[in-house]
Specification:
Helices cover about 0% and strands about 40% of the residues. By secondary structure, it is mainly beta. The protein folds into two domains: about 25 and about 195-320, no CATH class; about 35-185, Jelly Rolls, CATH 2.60.120. The strands form five sheets. Strands 2, 3, 4, 8, 11 and 13 form a six-stranded antiparallel beta sheet that branches. A five-stranded mixed beta sheet has the order 1-14-20-17-16, with no helix packed on it. A four-stranded antiparallel beta sheet has the order 5-12-9-10, with no helix packed on it. It is globular, with a radius of gyration of 20 Å.
Length: about 325
């Protein structure tokens, strides 16, 4: 059917005609070390992964973090450490001492071609590099890692710029999800080796991740997103082994999914999905079907009978039998 995403074997990335989609998989990660290059040399830092949290959505009527849209080529600063506004209310997502952040940045329906630059707020001059190359009318996501100033008036702050290649006036909305942050310090003891896309998940091992569907109302076909699992699962997945946790909102509530959105779990042989966010005008999860599942991953789709843009975010867990 036109507009429906096709599966991408052995890949962590998700693509959809109308959606900016991201999925992350973490399996027993050890301490990583990174050196930042930015406005000023940064300290050796270790990475801390988190469940993604949306800290910027300039679309009306959301306007979380900053009011939008961004106008070419006016930069805006966004504070990301300490207590900040999120789509789930004010909370601490990144500690004050963080030296950098890992982000999913999405430009939504720019009125002209251009680029988005994200950099430390204390970077001098105008941006000379881009993190996203934006096409007019499209939804363009990308992963971005940016150093954070740790002192002065710009501490914990990033600068965001949309530039329509020097033309003033064009606009774009911008979304930002924080997926992790860096803190000063070297690596800790080595952790268990993470699974690659070529590995088979060992029996009893649990992997977790997150998936987001951000859809546009003008797509009249079914909307879908897929999540690939490492290698080939020991047994094929089926409709009765890929279910939402019991919350009274989905047609396939599964009481054996006893984790939470922040700490997803699953019994052996199952994928458990935990709803973390949903837009107010999205169709009820009773209209969301878990079909098109296979041994290489799982897929979620619903019929596009909602009015306006829709947003659904889930965390998930899978335990190999």
């Amino acid at each position: 059917m036109a507009g429906r995403e096709t599966d991408v074997p052995r890949s962590w990335s998700l693509r959809s005609r109308w959606a900016a989609i991201g999925a992350a998989v973490a399996v027993g990660l050890g301490g990583g070390v990174v050196h930042f290059v930015g406005a000023a040399p940064g300290p050796t830092s270790s990475f801390v992964s988190i469940t993604p949290v949306r800290i910027l959505d300039t679309r009306d009527p959301t306007n979380v973090g900053l009011s939008g849209p961004f106008v070419s080529a006016a930069s805006q600063d966004l504070h990301v450490t300490g207590t900040i506004a999120t789509t789930n209310g004010s909370q601490i997502v990144v500690p004050d001492a963080a030296t950098g952040v890992s982000l999913n940045v999405t430009a939504v329906q720019a009125s002209a071609n251009g680029f988005v630059a994200v950099r430390p707020a204390d970077a001098p001059g105008v941006p000379l590099t881009s993190n996203l190359n934006v096409l007019a009318g499209e939804i363009v996501p990308n992963a971005v890692t940016v150093q954070l100033p740790t002192s002065g008036v710009d501490a914990g702050t990033i600068e965001i710029t949309f530039d329509a290649y020097g033309t003033t006036g064009p606009t774009t909305d911008i979304l930002i999800d924080i997926v992790g942050y860096y803190v000063a310090g070297g690596a800790g003891p080595p952790g268990a080796r993470g699974l690659s896309a070529w590995d088979v998940i060992p029996s009893g091992q649990t992997i977790t991740g997150n998936a987001t569907l951000d859809g546009h109302a003008s797509d009249v076909s079914d909307w879908a997103f897929s999540v690939a699992l490492p290698g080939r699962a020991p047994v094929p997945l089926a409709d009765n082994t890929v279910n939402f946790a019991s919350d009274g909102a989905a047609i396939d509530d599964d009481t054996t999914c006893t984790g939470t959105a922040a700490a997803p779990t699953a019994p052996p042989g199952k994928v458990c999905l935990y709803r973390t966010a949903i837009s107010s005008n999205t169709v009820n999860l009773e209209g969301l079907a878990l079909l098109h599942v296979a041994g290489s991953g799982f897929r979620i789709y619903w019929a596009a009978n909602a009015a306006g843009d829709t947003y659904v975010h889930v965390s998930w867990a899978y335990t190999a039998p």
